[in-house]
């Protein structure tokens, strides 16, 4: 156990309970969506971890630790599946949870049963004895398996988000509000936290005989409770957005050689030069297809086959060229670099900087400096 710290206990309890409140709010959002159910449960499971620490130590101070061993509610094996199915729901609008999917939660049921057994109670208490009993190693094994479960599902969920982001680029020229990038950060942070926590505690246990436990234990759970509360808040304010996802090309189509459609390229270049549709930040594939009198899927295929780019990269390449032209014109001093970017169709500084560096291998300021040096 650790020394009691009313201040840190209070902070952990406040943020954990606030996260649980956000969990309830997410669950009550209208209309009721499957994604919100999984997100609410995910936030609840995360909040239970730091809250358990407070409860166990408070009960210890009142010599009621034996009571906690019967009400332990840490649910490590539920975190991964909830994260996975939440990610599936927000990236696949037509996803439906089926009976076969319940198999993902079998380890969670076994974990719940395990916490109700004497093996857990003896093993958890044995962690604080000079010589740990065999049951303690069983308990530690359960904890490590829970960590592995979280890491595996986190990796899969992160991969799904990255794939979804690429799919969006086939239809949208602006994906910042559609790619669920906000979720990538907590996935990385939580996965990193559990790895760091398990390694740190094991090193302290076996190398330093728990000498430094007082210094890192509670501060780390303060951090976890704050991050969990933030996740609950972001999940609650997150708006549902309808997206269009085109079916990816088959392998046969990708490897099939198709001669360039010069007529299409001429029409596309003429449209871009005369009407400059890329200046509209909200431009999407359907809007451009309408201007070219084509169907969206047909246009997407034409762009991929003739431009060796997806829709997102194509439109942003035109925006970058327009930006470069503006810096070389008399309009250069009318706006800041970001102002010019916005005039060219960008509406995100980070996206503009990323795309510009990807295309030119320079930052916007470096490019401007090179122009000034050339003009001297």
List keywords for this structure.
376 residues, mainly alpha, Rhopdopsin 7-helix transmembrane proteins, Arc Repressor Mutant, subunit A, 2 domains, transcription regulation
How would you describe the overall organization of this protein?
This protein has 376 residues and is mainly α. The chain has two domains: 6-237, Rhopdopsin 7-helix transmembrane proteins; 257-375, Homeodomain-like (Arc Repressor Mutant, subunit A). The chain is 70% helix and 0% strand. The chain contains 17 helices and no strands. It has helices at 6-28, 34-61, 65-71, 76-91, 106-114, 118-126, 134-168, 181-206, 213-237, 251-255, 262-274, 285-291, 296-307, 311-328, 337-343, 349-360, 364-375. The longest helix has 35 residues, at 134-168. The protein is elongated, with a radius of gyration of 27 Å. 29% of the residues are buried. Keywords: DNA-binding, Membrane, Transcription, Transcription regulation, Transmembrane, Transmembrane helix. It comes from Maribacter flavus. InterPro entries: Homeodomain-like_sf, HTH_AraC. This is Helix-turn-helix domain-containing protein. Residues 269-370 form the HTH araC/xylS-type domain.
